[in-house]
Structures
1.
Amino acid sequence: MMLKRLLLYLLILGIAVTQPACWDQKEVERLGIVLATGVEQAPGGKVRLIVQNISPSAVGKGSQGGGGGPTATSKSYRNRAAEGETLFEANRKLSLETPRQLFFAHNQVIIISEELARSRGILEVMDFFERNPQIRRTTWVVIGEGDIAALLDEPGRLETTPAQRIFGIINERDLSSQYGVRMLGNFLEMLEGDGVQPFTALLKITDNQAQPEKHGDRTAEGHIIEPNDKFLINGTAVFRRDKMVGRLNPKESRGLLWVRGEVKGGVLEVHVPGEEDKTVTLEILRSKTKLKPSISDEQIFITVEINEESNLVETTAILDLTKPETINKLEKLQAEAIRKEVEMALDQAQQEYGVDVFGFGEELHRQYPQQWKEMKNNWADIFPTVQVEVQVEAKIRRTGLITKPVEPKQQ
Amino acid sequence: MASRLLKKILPKRPPRKPARTTGENKAKTDENTGTIIQKDLETTDLSPNLAANLDFLKKILGKNNDVVFRQFRLSTTDNTEAAIIFVDGLADKNTINNNILKPLMLEYRMAGLNQNGGSLLDRVKNLGATVSEAKYVHAMDPLVAAILYGDVALIINGQDTALLFSAKGWMSRSISEPQSEVLVRGPREGFTEDIRTNTTLIRRRLRSPNLVFEDLNIGRVTSTGVLIAYIKGIADPQLVSEVRARLQKIDIDGVLESGYLEELIEDNPYSPFPHILHTERPDRVAANLLEGRVAVITDGTPFVLLAPAEFIVFMQSPEDYNERYIIGTAVRWLRYLAFAISLLLPSLYIAITTFHQEMIPTRLLISLAAAREGVPFPALVEALAMEFTFEALREAGIRLPRSVGQAVSIVGALVIGQAAVQAGVVSSLMVIVVALTGIASFVNPSFSIALTMRLLRFPIMLLAGTLGLFGVMVGVLAILIHLSGLRSFGVPYLASLAPLHISDLKDVAIRAPWWAMINRPVETGKRNPRRQSPANKPSPPEPGQDKGGEQG
């Protein structure tokens, strides 16, 4: 009796554990790991989905054999493309050629073609990515100029796949702060928010200047002929709602980042008065930004307060850096340079494109919720009329190992 | 042979007192079989006739060739006949020769004590034999029991009382370093199989009249000596009486190791977790007695039981208290981590690689997928096979002779490591996981709880392979629920954590320095909570008061 009951329990447990389970079980080696996804327009009003499908054994063998890095014979990834009315349809069409089910959870970057972003809009693309549980909200979204397939086949050597290369480049964005880039989650928030418009980085392929012009045929010496391509992140794409309306060049992009308080590094060049041809280079250490909106007589004012610190890293001008006055002078020049960048960005956004990528609307919403309710619906019309005042407080912290520039002694 | 005979002659004593007879008239019973019925042994007393007594004893013990019957004459004027009976090997021959036979056969006369008054037996005891322990026995039953425990029985013609001399002197293993609990810093003495040696080792550490060894005999046939040790005034009397009661309830033919007793007195016989601690180290016993626990010492085994034992006790090593406390604390956390690894790592690996690939960092996922490319089995089967191999190897290594054991481990390392990976049967990462799990399980200072971890790993692995992380959580929660319901002699098994005793965390979350361990553990030290004066923290002498103490 006791034994019978025990057996029954064991049976129930066995069934409970084995029967409903395993439905999402998938061995690692059965996954078609996707590291990058590209979306572009296809003829006939369709969209084309391009995925970068990694081949783990090619990566693994490279490191296992001790050879290091992928060789020309075995590429560590395979790009696949399919067209469809919707992305999901295209995705499933890929199964006709992919031996493994595509696994998007490790997707590093989503590249949307500029053409599609400008003409068709990105709403349907976003719907697919937002709905799919495998896609992370931390995936980077970038806009690709030109041929997406070429972008996803960039031949750089560091990192194993172009996807990881793009990911790596974006991770180092604070060294330049010359473009604004968004993760999928942030991008969606901005897309759906009503006081701000989305923006993200623009990516394209250019020629690699480091390749000698007279390359010649040196395959006999063991050199591999490789395409003369490299990535270039070329400023920021700005959107009105789901459509891309324009771009900000690197300087303007940093203006945008100053306002949003996202500058964590990068280089500023200032020219000392009197020595206009000489340049002093400053590396930004950190910055903080405060937006202070105010409303008087139907006119909206926004004060942008920027606090910045930098190191002097290079100077061609002969300066006596031991004197506080010199530093003070440089600090003022630096503040002016920053203000200029911000004003360039404001100019573009307010007058040229008329889109509030700065998030002024959100700030107004926070400070003046009542008034915002009235403004909200015609914010696009009000935004260009907003008066913006930029106040910059800039500091120089260190001047490097030497105080005086390198200078030959006068005989 | 001997045990079968003992089984016949030494069953449990019935409470009633039958009418007693003497060996003289009872020795004749059952002559055709040559054995004496048990009842006779219990009811027979010694007779004044030496021959009859020897006859009776020979019927009982005579078949054993290790029992020596030595007949001789006392050096009294009338040369009274006498005999000593002892078990060869149990009793010390030197003592017998020099302290019993020599004085009685030679020097008795020289001492001129023949004419003194009193009974012959008294004179033998008081003036003759020079043995420290001697007592009178009147009945056959205790006499036989004493002989079988190494005493020497002296029976003199004309006396219906025998003298028992304690001359226990059998061969026993000498005190050596404990094999199962090796310390870098700490005493090197370990218990031996001899109960007297063991009590000595404890007594030497606790030179207090409050240390009590209570005597019990367990085992109908083996009649094993079992001692309950505790410190009066520290141990909870209720706990002591509970231990005593549980031990007294035991009715079993034999107790050969303390493991028998452990299973017979523990609170939850169905739990895979040990809830009585066993140790080979006298210093550990002493430390636990000082914390108010009770020790059960069993004759014939170096393993002493300590109760109550909470879960956390199994995570502590005596070395923690000998090494500096900062290091002790760090090592303790290492141990907690290793404990979690040894229980969960293979399960987590299975769950994450088969269900939750999105949780793996991208690069790791790629190399994982590359490593598993071509592996024919699912991760669960792979893990089970590897764990099985590892456990089999470990078991083989323990049981085999030492020289062969090493060969096994070399072959094992080659087979489950290099060759299996190269053949593509298992992935290299799985080998790492299994190896890490193995190492982690060796970190545990308590072998018995490490065994539990080894066992529980497998059901959790199955859960992980079928339900993923959810299954792992289910397994862990089931274990936690079970643990929180366990008790060890009335003390909650998870005590100090659940129920939470914040002051006890000084010996759980950290190993507090000795000067900060002012109180004993709450659960076991209720009776006498204060361990030391709170002013023990060392500090430099105050300036200006140099050598003040010396002058005073």
2.
Amino acid sequence: MKIPRLTTLAPVAVLVVLALFPVIGIPLSWLNYLFFFFIYLALANMWNLLAGYTGLICLCPAAFVGLAGYTLAIGTQVGVPFQVGLIAGAAVAALFALLISYPVFRMKGIYFAIGTLILPQALKGLFSYWRPVGNEYQGMGAGYSVIGSAGFTLMDKYWLALAIAAAAIFLVYIIIRARLGLGLTAIRDNENTAASSGVNIFRLKLSIFIIAAFIMGLAGAAYFIYSPRINPVGGFSIRWLIMPLMATVIGGEGIEEGPIMGAAVVTFLTFLLADYGAWSLLIQGIILVAVVVGMPQGIAGMLRQVGAYRFPQKLLQAAEAKIHKN
Amino acid sequence: MEDFLLELAPPLIKGILLGGLYVVIALGLSLVFGVMKLINVGHGDLVILGSYFAWAIMGWLGIDPFLSLVMGVPLFFVLGFFVQKFIINRTLRISLDAALIACFGISIIVQSLCQAIWTPFNRTLLTDYRLLNFAVGTVSIPFRYLLDFIGGLAVMIALREFLRRTYLGKAISAASQNEPVAERMGINPNRVYSFAFAIAMACAAVAGVLQGLTFSFNPTSGPPFLIISFGVIILGGLGSMAGTFIGGMIFGLTQTLGAHLSGSMMVQTIAPYLLVFVVLAVRPQGIFGR
């Protein structure tokens, strides 16, 4: 029998252990922390794909998250099961990405950043006054509840988030090793050279934008299944941009393991400082600025630079050599 | 027809006057954009910080918000100088994207600082003259809109004279026109950047007072001002004072006329964003741009 390589085996083992967590009786608070970690991880991975690998500083994750959340919530209001709403939400986010792709890709660099920053604000304004279904205002803003997900326990939500995060990591793994990833890094490094070398810039950017929007929408919809109430302020909150951006930059932009480390740091800080209200975000902001100024390659880049991976890699190789000796 | 025109007069006048506020905010933003090619994503939040500063001074010493600028402007100037020197200049050396993310970090810091100190509730700068009206013919217009216009005009003229007549101002103009040549003429770009950011912050302090008198504000009301003032710069073209002024009027008018003609709050909120987005997509170099 052929034994699979340890480098492929190790992530699978981690995934299995994480998937078994709810069954073996981990405290519920831990499941909550990990749920947020997975959602931020999925968002950060996609943001890394856009900003780190393609050079698109996209400031509109909140638009994708909010649209997916609203699709889910409105869908459940008219009787669509929430499982369908989850996929529909992600699909609407992807469709939105397709719709805005032509205007936003005309903008370059800093113009692209501001152009995408406008979208969540405009959508927030739209959804504050527009109420497609249901009766008139219920309290502040046009909020909706996600109904019909009562039977979906915390365990199920945990598994859903884990699946989305794993899919996001796997997707980035595949993309950056494929032709697509090569084209993307070429665009990031020099768009004109990439174009003259035969890279179809618009199509590549569009495909990556749609993929990222779909996964971000999925993560957003999963969050609104977890916390089943959406309003314009929460749905299109700047938090959906802050978290992935911070996780990616602190962990290491354009590095595969960066968002994973960054998301862990951000989730840890968020829950550690949860009692301090706004001061928590203040401290995270200071850390973000400190990282950009002092350690622009992030934690993962730092670790690579000092050669922290060399020892574990050696161990792994030695173990592999022993297993595959025969 | 006559009735229609008469009804149109208040939003027209209000829109033009409101433009002054957007001009003050946009001038600070465009100064930084001009020299560094960087959009300070935190500019809107700095304006709100200015509003809160005036509000706090008003509550503490009981003085008029405009008088509080005597403290606010120098304080913001010094703060801006050091923010640029220690944060943004360092990140600019790495890349423009890093500087953009640093600005975003500053935006987060300022927003959560306001929230931590002054709670997330809505505030206004309540003065005796805030609710006064003045009459143009038969039309009554809130006095605070006139203050916006006067403020906008004053800051614009002051900035223009500064850029034309002083050494530092000329250095800033030179650096924003052609940096490599400016550097060869003995201008230190980092120093120019620091002063440009400091002046932008001082503008933000003034804009904060005007903003606080015009609208109510909370810690998260910064980003809309950033977007609108960015739209003003794009529409008006970089480095064109008259263009900036016209851009400000157009955005003021979009907001007031949009609300008047459609009669809905939704249009008032979304119309400026749509305008910025469309202008960005169609003509990113601006209508009055060089």
3.
Amino acid sequence: MSQTKESRIVLPTRRKLLKASGLALASATPFFGPWAHNRVWAQSAQAKPLVIGLTMDASGQYAASGGEERLGAMMAIKEFNDKGGVLGRRIEAIHMDTETTPATGSRVAERMITRNEVAFLVGALHSGVANAISQVAQKYGCVFMNTNSSSPTEAGKDCHRTKFVWDGNGTNFAHAIVKNAIKVNGRNWVLLTNDYVWGHNTSKATRAIVEANGGKIVEELLVPQNTRDFSSYLLKLQQLKPQVVATAVGGDDIKALRQQVVQLNLQKSMAWINNQQDWPDVYGLGPESIFGVFGTTWYYRLDLPGVKEFVAGYQKQFPGMAIKVPGNVYHNAYMCTRELLRCVEEAGSTNNLAVIKKLEGRRMSAKDRMQHFDAWIDPTTHQVQQTIYMASYNDAPAEKDDIFKILANVDPKEVVDADSVKSCKLETYEATPSYQQ
Amino acid sequence: MDTLLGPLLQLAPHLANGISLGLLFALIALGFMLIVGVMETINLAHGSLFALGMYVALFVAAPKLGWFPELQAAYLALPVGTRYAVALFAAPLVVGVFGLLLELCLRRTYGRDPLYGLLLTFGAALVIEELIRLTWGSNEQQLPLPQSISGAFMLGDLIYSRYRVFASAFAILAIAALWLFLERTPYGAIIKAGAHDSEMVRALGINLSRLRSAVFALGVALAAIAGVVMAPIWGIRPQVGVDAVVPAFLIIVLGGVGSLWGAVIAGLLVGLVVGLTGAYASEWSLMSMYLLFIAVVTFRSRGLFGKKSALDA
């Protein structure tokens, strides 16, 4: 009894190890090979798990947000598994890093569908990655939930029957913010645009709304992805002297930009608007870096029923996280995964067309989503129309993480992206391959 | 005259900014240049060691430990400037020691196909980045700066960052110090001799293994110094090393492998090109360094100062 664990371990000789391995292999062989077919049958009889493929960035420009949306999806999956899964099947999630790279997104989606036999794909931040995943998903008919990428093209010209876009898009945010900013700050604007699909299309929407409201775009500066040094842009801005700088810059780029603007004190000499500010991109930056006005779809201190419990659930499930409270990215991923699983349950099947029909036009109450207005999935574009919040830095925080001051909440009906409706041409049901796992 | 003066006045701040940017690029490339030039090893872990330098500096300047709370409180009561100076000194030291350990692993690759060294340092880069992630998390962090070098100052009617001026001046000092070390000290002479003819150096009784270790540690320490200096500009993230290793590699090839002044001139050229395109053709600003690289290497495959090396700079 007093023997220590170490003293009981007897290291086998090489010869003994080889013998034992050979014996084990020989005795195990009959259970494989000839029985493989029956083994598969037996598994399906016991209701094989429903596998969800999480296509989320763990590296690259959106790594931090990728981590948060993964937690959101996992939380929804956990809640369903605690209730016994869905359709009597346990839900399993597999995650592969999409590396904030469209080519990797395609590869991951292809692999998850063909090798891992996932029932659904969930996740995306970078619109180029989301577009790449959605093309593969549509080819096979696999339902893809784009959790957090918000280029207007995602539910516009790049829409697909199998894709559902969960985040507010650049046009929604621009509608919510631009008119008022022209009134308050002035008509001369400069656009600072991340040089990829989301940046371009968001700035395009901002430009149209600025010009429609009597404003003028003095210049548009394109910021290549992964730009770390913004000094030349900031010098140029000083020479242009705009009244408003509207940025469509995301991920690690916006973090670097915010810090460098503060170093030059430029947040005081011109008004700054960031179309959409994801929570992981601003969390921990320090109060002085959270300047200007920006859009979001959710905040952890909204005074609405269920919000406190939702935050407590996050903290209980994920203790010790660097991001102590959930933000919009987590909220979108959670809501998206939960709604998908609800639809599977309601459809009574994982068949793609049955699930798609449940999702199309679906209405979700404000209370259920912990927002100010009801949300719905537009059946013509597959984009979730949800409450848009305008926020700025909170100079009277109730606690350390209370860094946003919500300035306004905007009804989704007021910020509809009419262009997406015109440009989105969903494939017909007949042209969408049937898919079921 | 006025019509010419206007655009020139508009251009001047961008030229100055480009030079400042170039000095910082050169600082990032120095350690890489030293290791490639002397040891003929392409250290793909340069970027991760650069990032590690940032994190060690962060740990030293703003420690967050549960142990010895009173001691920690007393240390944190020191002025930020003192803690920043300690960090600037300690980070290269700690990362340099880490470099010594890495060099021990690298020894088995000497004299073999260069791919072995390349693969080993690539693997080390991944391991270091993950270690950083595990230790400090994935979130953005900030290095506290002393008041005297933070904020901005007016330059005509333009605002410029004080820290950038400090960082550029520091880069000039680091380049000068490295040049003096290589050119004016007996240790520098041994390093140069080791790169020229390692067998002869060994025959003269100099311990070549120790020499290689010292050079590798020095190169790694320089990566860490660059990391500390760049931390307030680029921000501190586990993956920030990728942003450093690519321009560093480009600069040493552009300048000519092993040439100290080649790296400095190439850094300045890259800085100017990136700075000017950022202002006048912003969508080309990152691409411009690669175009410059292609243009130079097409006509001069050894780079600008390819025949020279750090050893006869």
4.
Amino acid sequence: MPAAPASFLDRALLARISDLALLARTVVDGFMHGQHRSMRRGSSTDFAQHRAYQPGDDLRRIDWRLLGRTDRFYMKEFEADTNASVMFALDSSASMDYGSKGVTKYDYGRFLIASLAWLSQQQGDRIGLVTFTGDIVDVVPPSARHLQLLLHTLGRAKAEGAGTLSGPAQRLAHMTSRAGILVLVTDCYESPAELGRAVDALRMRGQDLIVFHVVDAAERDFPFTAAATFEDAESKTRVAVRPHDLRKRYLEAARSHHEAVAKRLTASGADYVRVDTDQPLDRALHAYLDRRLARSRVR
Amino acid sequence: MGFLVPAFLAGLAAVIVPIVLHLRHRDKDTPHRFPSLMFVERLPIRTAQRRRITDWPLLLLRALAIVLLVIAFARPLFWKPALVRATAPPRTVVLLLDRSASMGHRAVWVAAQDSVRRVVQSLGAEDRAALVLFDDQAEVAQALTSDKALLLAAVGKATPSAAGTRYAAGLRAARQVATDAHTGTAPVNVVVVSDFQRNGTAGLAGLDLPTSLKVQPVAVSTGPRANASVSVAEARPVGGGARERLAVAATIRSRGVPAGRKMSVMLRLNGRQSGTQLVTAAGEGETRVVFEPVPLPSGLVRGELTIDPDSLAADDTARFTLTSNDAVRVLLVAPDDADRDETLYIERALAVGRSPSVRLERLRTGAIDAKRLEDAALVILWDVAPPSGSAGTALQEWTARGGGVVQVAARRTARRFGSSSLLPATASGLADRSDDRGGSLGDVRLDHPLLAPFRETPAALAAPRFLRHARLEPAHGGEIVARFDDGSAAVVERADGMGHVIVVGVPLDARAGDFPLQPAYLPFVRQLVLYATRRDATPLSREAGESWVIPASAREPVVSTPDGSIVRPPRDRRAASVPLREAGIYVLHDGETRSAPVGELAVNIPAAESDLGVVAPADLLAGVRRNGASVGEADPTPPPIEIERRQGLWRLAIIGLAVLLLIEMMLASRGWRAVANPLQTASSSGERS
């Protein structure tokens, strides 16, 4: 798969675009340039597989040639011609409002969702949005006409307060009655077990789940050297630390946590994608498209 | 080495500040916001490290900055005392010791003497000092000397006086002593030891003091002092004849005395207790105490009012004197053709009034002789010319000794006494004012003692109308006291020796005008008698610091003072006087002290001394003008303070260093934070932290 031009995905460029719609169009157009076929145009003519006839099936989809060769009724299945329902869930807790390289995790998450929503809109999908902290904050119900509303809601969303996934996940599972794709953008500051339980609750409804784990470079590398008082963005807890003494153990703890989260989410059937805010958006977009293509296969 | 302001060294305690800041700085610092401390909180952190100073050089630098700053403010003075003593001139100190009556307050005087003694003991061997005692006057008790023994002896001899306080007198004396010392521009220290009574500051405004005179106040009394004093409000004979009684009233002034305090007031007459009153004194203010009239002793009477003693005993006794038989003998010389009606009003007016009462004796023309004048106080020449010949000579001599003469000029004498040298005016005829409905007094000198009763009601003198009056012209040094509305003199007066001669052109009978029928007549005649006989200024008592003008009746006055000493006052052209420096009874004898007293005068301390309110010593010189005039020759060696002032640049340098160190502290702090926060973080709202 050819790489997208870097200029369209660079986070520094994106940070200067305040209009999320323009941003998303810029990202998607740049990303899709020359690398992806139109899914809408051939989606209903591409053969997928055969299956045995069941009473009530549409007689028009019986493979008459195979009936003549085998004297049995087989139904032809094609690429799906119905739109998927894509629900985006954005973690709006205060921990997301942090960025050591100019772009905060929250901004990065919004860019990502806006781009994915634009992309989904191009595919004819129904798109919706949920922002959450400790509870659901904003909800945009899935609809093929809700792109602007989604972008507007996304644009005025703010990251503040303490957040957890378990509570919102329960409510979100009840809100999505149709199986679809749930895109979760979070920084995963919860124990892997808690995250796993939340993902399990979402997966119970048959949702395909993609978890984008947004990580800032400072969280990843912990580059601090001199002693300082650190304040937790959500709990406001202050701890005086000497980073030089702690870095090694911090990095070890962070790495362990990330691995545990990835393992637990994968075990729950979710697609875990870690995105670093100092990296372009293309990796996230690729992950999404891969998942979208897999979802578009007719079962 | 020393410090001019060592109190600032207490600021060295501020060294603890950077230490505490170093230990606590991280907690005080702006916290570094981080998404989550989930991983950090799991890690063990040794909190002991937070209590450890991690940057010793920076801490020491900051502490040193504070130390330098404190030292700079303390104004260090580097000098070698021996060197300074060798080059600097000896100090000149003027000790001003307040000895006013208020210094007699309990323990104040002892403290004042001790303060002066301490200053004397601190003097160097080459230093000179003078002791000046002052109350309302100043006295150099000890001239400039290096002999401490002399100074201490003078201090020991000093005692509080009964006089008031005037700092101006003391400072003038100190200025004179400094001038006589010829110290050049070297400062002369004036140490003022006083209770700094507020009432003593009169006269300070406008006083000139050279800048080389360094005044150092030493307050020996701090805080308010309670005091009660007594004064004589009234002492007057009542009744008459053999049953004459004395009515006495006292005024008690309380300042800071507990309200409701009971105190007794005792009245003594000639040493015998004559009454006691128990009163409740007001905390602040006056209480009037009236005694029942008591029999008045004959002759000279000494009275004394005493209250319970308090901290200031000098004002707990008020003395007064009076004479039981103080009648003024007045000789009324009337013309032979004058009937009783003509002098009816003047005689009736003279008969009114007491203290003194008037004993009138009517004489015919030519009846005046030296014998009759001997015990007379006043001669009224009622429209008769002054006698000539021996009688005239006797009258002139008697007048020179203090007798009073009133010449009433009317229709008989308007043209006949012009040549008499006794009188201060000549008459040029009689003015007939009947055409313009009578004349009146037009221009009167209310500042003259003769017209003092009319200062509040000058219109009273304009009411009388005069149909005819003599035309007077001043002569022989006469002074016009009042004029008629046509400009001619109405009353002319001249002091003749010890006595007064007054020519009255104002008609005093009812035939030439209506003056006797006007309200102004009685006080005019009364004041005429008092002024001419010099009885108008005889109070019950005087205050210490004043002078006693000896009555002219004493030919060889000898005054015994309250402390028993004898004073023979020199008599100048006009009068003899005795300075009243002590509280008590001054007794006047004529010739020798063994003779019977001819007069007595009670002296009390000034009432202002009883008010013990103080002025801040620093405000003492508020109204004093300081000029740059030097006291004598110039001195090339500056005083230590001047030496220190010339070293001001290094002080500024230290302050500048301190400022630099402060800046360094800030820079160091910013650098520390920069290391602590190497990343520029951002939030979704656009703000960078």
